[in-house]
Design a protein that fits this description.
With 290 residues, the protein is α/β, with parallel strands linked by helices. It has one domain (4-287): 3-Layer(aba) Sandwich (Rossmann fold), CATH 3.40.50. It is built from seven helices and eight strands; from the N terminus they run H-E-H-E-H-E-H-E-H-E-H-E-E-E-H. The strands form two sheets. A five-stranded parallel β-sheet has the order 3-2-1-4-5, sandwiched between helices. Helix 4 (89-102) packs parallel to helix 5 (130-155).
Length: 290
């Protein structure tokens, strides 16, 4: 648990937030919970002077959230909602295409969409249960498709960060013979999704140009009230618990941060060369990302 001094320091740093450009930030799952909290904090700390895109299913909630944002003073800043059920891959393709058509650069991509229903018998039209689709496949597709815009931002010396919220350090070894997680027990299924996210956010190991941008990754499942955000630190606090994300500009490092703000490095990480190769191939096939 962090001390009150740490929280005070974070608040002081947050007060210094300043961009020399109008940042573009996409929040997927931003109509409730953690995603909403991060979107609201981002709007607050940029004083509304950002292009904020909330992606989700609940238009009424999104419009209420956007109405609460500070009114921007920059004429180029804009706050908007894109209605999309990202559990369906065809919808993800549509939303990433829409974003790329409007924005050559993307500075922040925050992924927190999820589902609490653990019924794996109900499948989407892609043949994937909704929890797996939301926790992994849709996030993978969003990153993969939007990578060129993130890379463009990074090449222009702007922030280019991806955040995926999903319980780092609590995964488990994955079964390479059951990457679809059809035979896995409930606990194995949940732990495998955590490991899938770890491997997903470790894209830089491939040396693929499309993923040569900075990753800033808090992966924690606390359902609290985020957040404080500034260019070099993202943090969230709930009932005295604090987790934060230091960033390394121009690096290809994947930060794995625990619920108390500590960098857990490779603790609870089960991605090796064999599993990464197998999962990459499997995911490319499922998402049709050629």
């Amino acid at each position: 648990m962090r001390s009150s001094n740490s929280l005070s320091k974070i608040k002081a740093e947050n007060a210094k937030i300043s961009f020399s450009y109008i940042p573009v930030a996409v929040f997927v799952g931003g109509t409730s919970g953690i995603g909403r909290g991060i979107a609201e904090a981002f709007a607050r700390h940029t004083k509304g002077n950002a292009h904020i895109i909330i992606v989700g299913r609940n238009r009424a909630a999104a419009e209420s959230i956007i109405a609460s944002f500070p009114q921007p003073t920059s004429p180029t800043a804009k706050h908007e909602f894109i209605e999309c059920d990202v559990s369906l891959l065809k919808n993800v393709r549509q939303v990433t295409s829409e974003i790329l058509n409007k924005h050559a650069k993307l500075n922040f991509l925050v992924l927190s969409a999820g589902a609490l229903d653990h019924n794996r018998t109900r499948l989407t039209e892609d043949g994937i249960d909704p929890v797996t689709a939301l926790s992994y496949h849709s996030r993978w597709k969003l990153i993969y498709d939007l990578a060129p815009a993130l890379e463009k931002a990074r090449n222009d010396n702007e922030d280019a960060k991806v955040l995926s919220v999903l319980s780092a350090g609590n995964g488990g070894k994955i079964d390479l013979s059951d990457l679809e997680l059809k035979k896995a027990s409930l606990m194995t299924w949940i732990q495998s999704l955590m490991t899938y996210n770890d491997i997903m956010m470790d894209f830089s190991w491939r040396g693929t140009d499309s993923f040569r941008f900075e990753f800033c990754v808090p992966l924690d499942a606390n359902m609290g009230l985020p957040c404080q955000l500034h260019p070099s630190l993202l943090s969230s606090y709930d009932t005295g618990k604090l987790w934060g994300v230091p960033t390394v500009r121009d690096s290809l490092y994947c930060w794995r941060i625990g619920k108390h703000g500590n960098d857990i490095e490779k603790q609870g990480y089960y991605g090796d060369d064999t599993s990464r190769d197998a999962l990459w191939k499997h995911t490319m096939e499922v998402t049709d990302s050629k």
